[in-house]
Amino acid sequence: MPTKNNQNFFIPVFRLPFRPFFLAAGIFSTLIIALWGLYWSGSFILKPQGGIIWWHGHEMLFGFSGAVLVGFLLTAAKNWTGLPGMGGWPLVTLFLFWVCARASLFFHHEIALVTACIFEAVFWGYACLIYSIMIIRTKLWTNIGFSIVLIGMGSFSILSILSTISGEHLIDYLHTAVAFFILVITVIGGRIIPFFTASATKTEKVKPNPIIELMTIILCIILLAWTIIYGLAKTNQFLGTGLLFLVLMQIIRVARWPIRLSLRNPMLWSLYLGYGALIMGLALLASYHYGFINNVSAAIHTITLGTIGLMILTMMSRVSMGHTGRAIIASNLLVLAFILIFVAMLIRVFIPLFGFQQYLMLAYAVSAGLWVIAFSIWLVKFFPILTRARTDGLPG
């Protein structure tokens, strides 16, 4: 449980949730994407649970992205509620559950599978419990939906792990995680992007249109429900039509935001670029269901690499600087990291999509290499920030 005093005496890295989870997510994604690149270069020797392709997808969605989601929500809950943030030994315990789940899936063994399921269940359940208590105590019911997201992510992570026994629905559960993130990014992006733009540019925040916001979120929920029931890989023109409506709503929504004001601020345009990748990914997914393209992976990786990857890199940077008393300014190297992630997405998506089969494995390896470079840049800058006390002496 959050306590009033645990931030005052504990080592800095365990004073608020964003610190250990962002740091571990950066290290973990650099490691596993490096291994992924080695696999495509023919040098990979490990045999993790579920095979390398499933393991890569599961750990990037439920492991890496899940860590960032939990770190962000538990830190944001402190700001939203005004309650003391989670820190100290409860945070250490939660973090160790995440670490043990990741370590278990490195091994291909029945015991490893069982322990991975147990640690995943406890990790997601504990995170949801802490978050939900904070929200319920302060009656912030508009944020309670994220409790459902945390439970849903935990449940489908476990189902995904169990699917490695039979080999059925291996990809379907990963697609469900993508659908969860589409919903989360749509909700959180709609809140923070206009707010951050107004704050950084000293302009009035664009007021959301209630009808557009409601329709967009409802369509995202329908997409999630469809994915849970039917999956995303089997083509269906009805789903394609729904995706086109969602693309239209997203475009109308973003068109109301002051994009022009963000162009000189990398901490803003990177968020817009990531959100633009979401719209592009949804459009590619609609094209897939109409039969215009035959590669669902292209649509999925536009969202996972271009949207989740870039927005995570930006938000981890922003939260890490803001919550440690530093100015939220992107250095030239951090801007390079943003660009590298987007270029990695373009290479990973469009080389296969345009049919350059002779360059396929090279494209995967290069894309992985660019990710590793981008997150290595981020780690060099933010490792000392996340492991040291705030510059202003305040707790957190």
From TrEMBL:
The chain crosses the membrane at residues 21-40, 52-74, 86-105, 111-133, 140-165, 177-199, 211-232, 238-255, 267-290, 296-315, 327-347, 359-380. It comes from the Bacteria. Keywords: Membrane, Transmembrane, Transmembrane helix. Signal peptide: none annotated. The keyword Magnesium does not apply. InterPro entries: NnrS. This is NnrS family protein. It comes from Aliikangiella maris.
